[in-house]
Each structure stands twice: as C-alpha cells, then as structure tokens.
Amino acid sequence: MEFAKVTTLMKATALELAILTGHLVLYPTGIVAERLAPTPSDVPPEGPARGRRPVLLLHGFVDNRSVFVLLRRSLARHGRDGIESLNYSPLTCDLRAAAELLGRRVDEIRARTGHAEVDIVGHSLGGLIARYYVQCLGGDARVRTLVTLGTPHAGTTMARLAAAHPLVRQMRPGSEVLRELAGPAPGCRTRFVSFWSDLDQVMVPVETARLDHPDLVVHNVRVSGVGHLALPVHPTVATGVREALDADDGPGITAGRGEEPDASSVA
C-alpha cells in the first residue's frame, strides 16, 4: 500500500514538472489579452441570446489565460463556442479589485451576447475571485455555474511561504476576505462545483479546496492522483468540468444547501 502511494506521488510530481515546463513555454502567448469575439449578426445588443451560456475562464496567481489552452480546446470540441478568458494583473493587490474587474467583464459579455447568465471556471486564486464576485458583489444574478479547480476556499497554509504579496496573504486561513466569504450568503443563486485533489501540494491541507458553506448550493468533486498545475490540463478533469457546465440539474442542484449526499470523485 505504501509503495503504491509513493508510486502515485512520483507520477503526479513528474506530471506537474512536465506541465510546468510546458506552461513556461506557453506563458508569453497568454500575456496579451485575447481579442474579444464579435457579436453574432443575428443577435442585436441586449437582444435574445442563442446557444449555450458563455464560459469565462479565470486563471490563478501570477498566471495568465495560457493555462487554459487544453481545457478551452476540450470545451470547444464538445460544442462550446462562447469561451473567453480574463487576465487580471499580477500587480493586483486586492482580491476584491479583481472581483470588480470580473464583474465588469461579465456585464460586457452579457451585453454583447444577449445572454442573461454566464458560467465561470476559475483555477486556484481565480476561483476565489469568482466566488467573491458571486457572493459579495451580486454576481449570483449573473453567474449560473461556478466551477473551481484547486481553489483555497478555506485558505492554504502554503500561502505563508510567500506572504509578501497582498493577494497571497488573502489566501491565508482566517484572512479578512476568507472570513467575509464564510459569512452568511442567504439566497445565493449560483451553483458551485469544486474540484479538489488529494495530491494538491499547493492546497495545505488538500481539503481546503473543498467548498463547505451552509448557504451555498455546492457539489464537491475529489480528484485522485493529480497535482495543482494539472487540474486545468488533465483530460479527466476536463470531462468533469464539461459535465458540470452542461448539467441543468446536477447533484448540487437537487441537494439541499450545504448538503452533499452525492459528492463524487474522479481518478
């Protein structure tokens, strides 16, 4: 049993290193903000929407939209054509400011596409920014489903190792922002799907990436054998993300708020 655990950890670590190397190569391609898709000719501004809800991808700390190259390709292959990403500056010093930027982008997408709601996928800190927008800035009226990948919902002690940056300090357990998010959120309309990994070495402890809140409609998904960097890249996780976005009545919808009778796992 111990040998199997060590082998799994070694494989996950090797995969993380390979992904890090590839991401460093791709990183320059994601620095510049993407060109926004034009409004379809048959959808006037503020007019009726057609097709599936747009999906907005939000990266983690000191990252950019290039982290979603493979996930974006997977979503597009399976019929999602309204996929966009948002870069927030690495010089951002307050998660709340990034959440306000996200809100402006969501409103712009809604006006441009005619959709009343969008879906969001956030990796790591990106998921926390999106959650703040939904819970604290009225985003629940505009976001149907929020999928988080390796997000420190309860804070990670790993953040103490790089505490010089204000955003990192906001990811510490017990930070002001996390206390705000832990507060009451009655009537929050957004559906949350949180992917957390048993081998995520950035989330310490790994369970901090679970989302447990009595007022939120949440479905937690445990991922086995996948590290932090692999979450937005791994094909099995991509399948889970697609299913979460496509589900009109998934486990998190039919369950009561704060309940989790159908929490699932992927390997």
Blueprint (SSEs and pairs):
Elements: H1 2-26, E1 55-58, H2 69-77, E2 83-86, H3 95-113, E3 118-123, H4 125-136, E4 143-149, H5 166-169, H6 176-182, E5 191-197, E6 217-223, H7 235-246, H8 251-254, E7 264-266
Parallel strand pairs: 1-2, 1-3, 3-4, 4-5, 5-6, 6-7
Helix pairs in contact: 2-7, 3-4
Number of DSSP strands?
7
> What fraction strand?
5-15%
Helix content: 25-40%
Structural class: alpha/beta
Q: What gross morphology would you assign?
A: globular
Tell me the radius of gyration. 18 Å
What is the N-to-C succession of helices and strands? Answer: HEHEHEHEHHEEHHE
Strand order of the largest sheet: 2-1-3-4-5-6-7
Number of helices: 8
Q: Please state the oligomeric state of the protein chains shown.
A: single chain
Q: What's the end-to-end separation, in Å?
A: 17 Å
Low-confidence stretches: 41-47, 249-262
Largest sheet: 7 strands, parallel
Mean pLDDT: 84
Outline of the structure:
α4 links the parallel β3 and β4 (143-149).
What would you say this structure looks like, in words?
With 267 residues, this protein is of the alpha/beta class. 34% of the residues lie in helices and 14% in strands. It contains eight helices and seven strands. The chain has helices at 2-26, 69-77, 95-113, 125-136, 166-169, 176-182, 235-246, 251-254; strands spanning 55-58, 83-86, 118-123, 143-149, 191-197, 217-223, 264-266. The protein has a seven-stranded parallel beta sheet, with helices on both faces. Helix 2 crosses helix 7 and helix 3 packs across helix 4 (125-136). The radius of gyration is 18 Å and the shape is globular. The two termini are 17 Å apart.
